[in-house]
Amino acid sequence: MIIGDGIDAGILAPIGDGPGIDGRADEGEVGDLFREIRFQRKAIFRAEQKAAMGEDVGDGDNWGWDQIAETALDYLTVHGKDLEIMAILAESCARRDGLAGFDKAVVVMAELVEQWWEQGLYPPEDEEDGVEARFQPISGLSGGGSDKDGTLIAPLRNLVLAGSGEDSLRYMDRVVAEGMLASAQTVKPEQRASLQAQAEEAMAASEAIARRVGGKPLRVAVVHLSSSEAAWRRAVGFISERTKPRFPAASRVSDELRSIREWVEGLLRLLPDDSANDVEEPEVAADAGGVALVATGGGAANAPFSIGQIGRREDALRAVNAAADYFEKFEPLSPIGSALRDVDRRARMSFGDLLVELIPDGSSRDLFYWRSGIRPPAPE
Question: Is the pLDDT of residue 317 over 60?
């Protein structure tokens, strides 16, 4: 895995006493490395587009996604905490590291945002785009207001969700089949039957793969899809609370992850009841600190979190988020889901910010401080 054990800690750790250097402004080696990562990411993307169109890619000296990922890891660990480089790393993981690796990358990205956004996470605001410059890397992954997909959409659709080789289950096959069904409604009648037959054949092939690989890998895929969707929403929600009324254009990735998860859950429902017997016991692993983690099937409420006695604050908040996922999905009219989201959001606020929200009036807030034996903070 690209972001293996302990590597996430290096991504999140301070560089010196802060976020390191902004490669956009640096004229030395760090700036050169930042611009090279940007160039190589654009170069390999253009090469893939040419290959998809059947054009000659040539024999250039472009990096592969593995080298881009390795260099991005080095940059984030040694040189600067940068959301653009983290976005490139997440894209690399989606292309080279499979669903589990992508899940890990998005979780780390959410943690990077939460830990460093208010401590100088790059990129900074600029004169042209203002605060939108800070979250543009997120918007680029998802896609803006136009019809153009973000750079993460195609890699997500091409992820191997279960199986291998010819028995690889990919959401792209479903997208292509749906495209053929849509086209069948606009073509001549003599062509319609052929397109519909091809689409039905493609859907049947995916169902056959699901039956061959069985329930366990499909349920593992649901866990990772749920976890990555929850982490993506965490990152976007954290940013949006601090940049409103400006928000990242992030809904396409959220929608894509949800659609993929719901498709896999639909395939699971086609399997015989006894196919679930091989996944009754949850998979238990350990995080970098040796804390037991559990991953169980069943939708967005099942992102991995600590079992037994919760030993980390972040585990507790992820458990709150998992509960919120459940109530929003299965009890959408209940206020419990939104109330739990507020618990998570407020738990991540500083004490001062929380009091500003709970006691908006400044004089009343100062009175609360004095009565609590606390000196009020100096006015900004």
Answer: yes
Question: How far apart are the C-alpha atoms of 231 and 253, rounded to whole Å?
Answer: 11
What's the confidence (pLDDT) of residue 59? 65
**Cα–Cα distance for residue pair 19/81, rounded to 1 Å:** 5
Distance CA 147, CA 86 (A): 24
Nearest to 228 by CA among 107, 364, 75: 107
CB neighbour class for 364 (10 Å; exposed up to 12, middle 13-18, buried from 19) = exposed
Predicted structure pTM score: 0.72
Q: Where are the domains of the chain?
A: 7-162+214-348
C-beta neighbour count of 36 within 10 angstroms: 15
SS3 312: coil
Q: Three-state SS for 326? A: helix
Q: With beta carbons less than 8 A apart as the criterion, state whether 22 and 80 touch.
A: yes
Per-residue pLDDT tens for 259-313?
A: 999 999 999 999 886 544 444 333 434 443 333 344 433 333 344 444 445 667 8
Number of C-alpha atoms within 13 angstroms, CB side, residue 198? 16
HEC profile of 83-112:
HHHHHHHHHHHHHHCHHHHHHHHHHHHHHH
Q: Look up residue 195 and give its two tokens.
A: 């397109």
- Is residue 155 a contact partner of residue 141, using CB atoms and an 8 Å limit? no
Three-state SS at 293 = strand
Cα–chain center distance at 268? 23
Q: Tell me how far apart the alpha carbons of residues 303 and 324 are, in angstroms, rounded to a whole number.
A: 12
Q: 3-class SS at 379?
A: coil
Amino acid found at 15: I
CB 374 within 8 A of CB 367: no
Closest by CA to 227, choosing from 290, 144, 149, 285, is 285
How many angstroms separate the CA atoms of 201 and 107, rounded?
36
Listed range (146-160, 230-244, 258-272, 345-359) with the worst mean pLDDT: 345-359
